[in-house]
């Protein structure tokens, strides 16, 4: 019987979680409304003072679609979001236009004016002209001076030559940027693409009406036009650090107070289970059907790493692989697209398969047609992966003749949601089918007495996985990119980084309870508490991705303060590590779960390092102002995405393999090699290559401006190239770990599977 105190604590935690989520998502939507209202306007026309039309709205919107069709964020970036090899096109255009306008403004020196004074006067005039907001809401037109119109035409010609491939002088830059060999645009398409680039640069250098802050809050750092950090950027950064210290102290004090209580209540009331309860499970047909999901996990994992190696090498050769004309078939844009997508796909597949495997085991039976649903979902997954990848390849190779067809079936160009709209909808339907399969299998558990909070948390997080991916359908083919970015980060941050982790945490706790090594009441309180402190920072922490994406300054204030709280739960990782150690080493039979537990322990380590240290390195607005889109972001992304979510996916895979295969015949040598190779290789990759590259780029960004830190001149400098090569040892060690894991999986399946039955004969501890 549960005590009144435990019941009240769980009820109170549910109330805090429910009310908190309503408030947090309410603020998220409220600021989203402001983004809609204050996004940089797309003009009906851009004209010179003499009446010449430089660009039309149709040019800008079509240019955005052309940019998407050739890879979008996978070939350079816009407003700092995208890939790291080619320039940030907004910053690159802005810098080139400022230089061109400054050169065109040169006039003979007046009497008594020194060259230094004249230079200062020209720069002051340049800043006044480029920052002045000449957008007329009535006509929808932007008007620029005739001199600036000439500068714009000069910069436009540079980009037209770069993209249509007609100018031999541009070939070196095409190679440095790793452009596709056969991906040239027509001159007309290239001119429309430049309209989009101009508009993104215009938003980055033009003051908002009535303010002296640009639409992107003075990002990027560009001394020529007076773009430097705003006062708010600095002050909110300092405030976030203070809040972090205060919240960290409060949370650690709370944990210290509760720790003795939790430590004494970790084990089940009747004591630790004396045998492996899950080992007595007889696998149902639908559980057996999940085995092929884990085969796909291995295949996608191997493919992702191979594509990552090729993508990293393009930073050296551009359009080749050790002299081989690899880019003719798989250019950088494609390899990076598939590399980033596969990272999400194999991790998500591991988590989804775990849900399909665990739900019937906990429910005690296979619902009718459960196996059919699992198999249909698997086929759909393969169709989505193959179909979306084929569409992206066709788009980059210019096989789509219609930009609308590209939007639906080709390459959307937005990082992590690159797949065409048709494939997005198909995947969303598949996710809701997965939710239905998990819910119907878990339904019998809800009829039992006690411990329903954990089940409810699993069900709610499963439903949220389907709903939050639907945010990717909230933009259309011609949506303002500032608005698109708002919804994209719902998917990338809230879906990938948020709700999936809640689901995985709840599932792991349920398994620990089912194994008889963790008390139900303690597990429930700890999971609810962890969910509260994680989501309270995580939901509004979405805004730290949107500081400089054409959003109002309120986004910086909220994002800076709340995203600091994302780091707070990671500071008490030692308590969680102790708890897991306590329950994972109490009985002899637990040795068979040693390696799944080891991967879970690695999650804790990389949560602290990859998500915590590397994440907070770039999260404060003043840091991200100089670092956005540099290799400091890649450093955080690799350490957090694989170190946390990838390790968790592998741990869950091994957990399910415990039931699908004969654990007594596992070749533990290969899993041991895989574990240490993956962790050591990831550490080498980050500390020897990505982090030093990012720090050097940050110095260049502060000292010379952001455009220089992303330029081919700097990226292909000897020291940066040396640091790219310094990644090779870590990549080799990491890749060896990947292949070792895949080989372990092959051997495990070859050496025997467990019998299949329609029921699960497993002693059920009281939930």
Mean pLDDT, all residues: 87
| Rg (C-alpha, Å) | 27 Å
Q: How many strand segments?
A: 6
- Characterize the overall form: globular
- Numbering strands along the chain, what is their spatial order in the largest sheet? 2-1-6-5
Describe the largest sheet: 4 strands, mixed
Helicity, as a percent range: 55-70%
User: What separation lies between the terminal Cα atoms?
Assistant: 12 Å
Percentage of residues in DSSP E strands? under 5%
DSSP helical segment count:
27
> Which runs of at least 5 residues are low in confidence (pLDDT < 50)?
1-5, 757-767
By helix and strand content, what is the structural category?
mainly alpha
Features:
mainly alpha, heme binding, disordered N terminus, 2% strand, 4-stranded mixed β-sheet, two-stranded antiparallel ribbon, Cyt_C_Oxase_1, 767 residues, globular, single chain, disordered C terminus, transmembrane helix
How does this model look, in words?
This is Nitric oxide reductase large subunit. The chain crosses the membrane at residues 12-32, 234-256, 293-316, 343-362, 374-395, 423-442, 454-475, 487-513, 525-548, 554-575, 595-618, 638-658, 670-691, 732-750. InterPro entries: Cyt_c_oxase-like_su1_sf, Cyt_C_Oxase_1, NorB_cytochrome_c-like. One of its GO terms (cellular component) is membrane. There is one protein chain. This protein has 767 residues and is mostly helical. It has a domain at 45-228. Helix content is 67%, strand content 2%. The protein has 27 helices and 6 strands. A 4-stranded mixed β-sheet has the order 2-1-6-5. A two-stranded antiparallel ribbon has the order 3-4. A hairpin with a 2-residue loop joins β3 and β4 (81-82).
């Amino acid at each position: 019987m549960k005590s009144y105190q435990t019941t009240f604590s769980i009820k109170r935690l549910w109330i805090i979680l429910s009310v908190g989520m309503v408030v947090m998502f309410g603020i998220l939507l409220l600021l989203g409304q402001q983004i809609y209202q204050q996004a940089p306007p797309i003009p009906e026309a851009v004209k010179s003072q003499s009446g010449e039309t430089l660009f039309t709205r149709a040019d800008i919107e079509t240019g955005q679609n052309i940019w998407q069709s050739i890879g979008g964020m996978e070939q350079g970036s816009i407003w700092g979001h995208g890939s790291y090899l080619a320039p940030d096109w907004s910053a690159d255009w802005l810098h080139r236009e400022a230089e061109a306008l400054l050169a065109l403004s040169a006039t003979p020196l007046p009497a008594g004016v020194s060259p230094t004074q004249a230079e200062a006067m020209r720069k002051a005039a340049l800043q006044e002209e480029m920052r002045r907001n000449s957008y007329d809401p009535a006509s929808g037109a932007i008007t620029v001076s005739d001199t600036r119109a000439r500068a714009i035409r000069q910069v436009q010609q540079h980009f037209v030559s770069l993209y249509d491939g007609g100018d031999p002088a541009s070939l070196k830059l095409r190679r440095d940027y790793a452009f596709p060999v056969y991906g040239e645009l027509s001159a007309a398409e290239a001119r429309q693409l430049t309209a989009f680039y101009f508009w993104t640069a215009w938003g980055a250098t033009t003051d908002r009406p009535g303010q002296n802050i640009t639409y992107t809050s003075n990002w990027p750092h560009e001394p020529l036009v007076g773009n430097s950090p705003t006062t708010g950027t600095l002050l909110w950064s300092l405030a976030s650090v203070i809040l972090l210290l205060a919240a960290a102290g409060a949370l650690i004090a709370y944990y210290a107070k509760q720790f003795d209580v939790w430590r004494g209540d970790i084990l089940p009331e009747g004591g630790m289970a004396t045998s492996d309860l899950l080992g007595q499970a007889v696998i149902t047909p639908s559980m057996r059907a999940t085995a092929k999901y884990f085969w796909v996990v291995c295949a996608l994992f191997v493919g992702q790493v191979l594509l990552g190696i090729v993508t990293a090498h393009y930073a050296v050769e551009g359009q080749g692989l050790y002299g081989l004309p690899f880019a003719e078939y798989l250019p950088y844009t494609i390899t990076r697209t598939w590399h980033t997508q596969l990272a999400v796909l194999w991790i998500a597949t591991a988590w989804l398969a775990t849900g399909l495997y665990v739900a019937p085991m906990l429910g005690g039976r296979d619902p009718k047609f459960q196996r059919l649903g699992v198999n249909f979902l698997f086929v759909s997954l393969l169709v989505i992966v193959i179909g979306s990848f084929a569409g992206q390849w066709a788009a980059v190779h210019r096989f789509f003749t219609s930009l609308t067809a590209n939007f639906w079936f080709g390459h959307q160009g937005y990082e992590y949601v690159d797949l065409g709209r048709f494939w997005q909808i198909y995947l969303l339907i598949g996710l809701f089918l997965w939710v239905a399969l998990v819910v119907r299998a878990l339904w019998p558990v809800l009829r039992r007495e006690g411990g329903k909070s954990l089940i409810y948390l699993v069900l709610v997080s499963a439903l949220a996985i389907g709903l939050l991916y639907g945010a990717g359908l909230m933009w259309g083919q011609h949506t303002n990119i500032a608005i698109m970015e708002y919804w994209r980060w719902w998917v990338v941050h809230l879906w990938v980084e948020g709700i999936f982790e809640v689901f995985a945490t709840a599932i792991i706790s349920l398994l620990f309870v089912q194994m008889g090594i963790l008390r139900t009441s303690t597990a429930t309180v700890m999971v609810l508490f962890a969910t509260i402190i994680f989501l309270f920072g995580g939901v509004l922490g979405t805004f730290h991705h949107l500081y400089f994406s054409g959003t109002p300054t309120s986004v910086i204030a909220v994002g800076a303060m709340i995203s600091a709280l994302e780091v707070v739960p990671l500071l008490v990782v030692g308590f969680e590590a102790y708890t897991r150690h306590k329950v994972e080493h109490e009985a002899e039979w637990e040795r068979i779960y040693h390696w799944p537990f080891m991967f879970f322990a690695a999650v804790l380590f990389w949560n602290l390092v990859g998500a915590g240290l590397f994440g907070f390195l770039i999260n404060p607005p003043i840091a991200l102002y100089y670092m956005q889109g540099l290799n400091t972001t890649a450093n955080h992304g690799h350490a957090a995405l694989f170190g946390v979510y990838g390790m968790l996916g592998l741990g869950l895979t091994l957990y399910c393999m415990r039931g699908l295969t004969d654990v007594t015949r596992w070749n533990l040598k290969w899993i041991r090699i895989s574990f240490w190779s993956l962790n050591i290789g990831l550490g080498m990759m980050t500390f020897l290559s990505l982090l030093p590259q990012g720090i050097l780029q940050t110095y260049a960004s502060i000292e010379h401006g952001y455009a220089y830190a992303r330029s081919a001149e700097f990226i292909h400098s000897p020291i940066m190239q040396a640091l790219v090569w310094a990644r090779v040892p870590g990549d080799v060690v990491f890749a060896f770990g990947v292949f070792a894991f895949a080989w372990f999986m092959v051997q495990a399946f070859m050496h025997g599977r467990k019998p299949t039955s329609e029921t699960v004969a497993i002693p059920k501890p009281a939930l």
